[in-house]
Amino acid sequence: PAGPAVELADLHRWRGRALLELRDPAAAGPLRSALAAGPTSIRDRAEVHTDLARALAGADDAAAAEHARQARALAERIG
To answer: Residue 27 has what DSSP assignment?
Structure first.
């Protein structure tokens, strides 16, 4: 089909990001699905980890810290 291709990971990421901005606690679900679907770039993966760190902060601080560490490590790789 003509037009841009949209990956399943992108749909989960965008939905999770929208829920996060609305401060909806359900944001972590789609963001986890985005990671499981395998974001197409390192930058996208770093963004998902960053969003997950924000979504989990306060509810699961250990998981939030781990996602923040992973996002930082990926960001260092891409400069």
So the answer is: G
